[in-house]
Design a protein that fits this description.
Blueprint: H1 2-11, E1 14-20, E2 23-29, E3 32-35, E4 38-44, H2 48-55, E5 58-64, E6 70-79, H3 84-92, E7 108-121, E8 127-129
Antiparallel strand pairs: 1-2, 1-5, 3-4, 4-7, 5-6, 6-7, 7-8
Length: 132
């Protein structure tokens, strides 16, 4: 998992692709944590992306680095039941507490990917498996 997390750290912003019916949807994300041998991502329970992942948990995360390498991380989103992960995410990005708090009622939902593959791909090269 460290290879995936390291890649995401170097890329900074990455993109999460979901499906809404038969329409693909892609949005930028930046928050991730590596905890308990998992790479975790956070999204709001009030957002369409959350509803999309509940309806169809298959998704893909793509990130690109300045050196031309890009990563494709594909799998099934599994939401965490323990609120400690959301608290850890909010500790790592305190500005998000303006959005996710008791007053707004918004909750950060943390998920990781299962049945996943992850590849580091050069622009004109073969992919290297990051799960090995």
């Amino acid at each position: 998992m460290s290879k995936i997390s390291d890649f995401l750290n170097e890329a900074g912003v990455f993109f999460l692709a979901t499906v809404d019916g038969d329409q693909p949807k892609v949005r930028p994300l930046g928050l991730h944590l590596e905890v308990d041998d998992k790479v975790l991502f956070g999204i709001g329970d009030f957002k369409e992306v959350y509803k999309q992942l509940l309806a169809n948990p298959k998704c893909e995360i793509v990130a690109a680095k300045e050196d031309g390498h890009w990563m494709r991380y594909t799998g099934k989103a599994v939401f965490e039941e323990d609120d400690k992960y959301a608290e850890m995410a909010l500790e790592s990005a305190p500005h998000l507490r303006q959005i996710y708090n008791d007053e707004t009622g918004n909750k950060m939902m943390m998920f990781h990917l299962e049945d996943a593959t992850a590849y580091d791909i050069e622009v004109m090269g073969e992919g290297v498996d990051l799960m090995e």
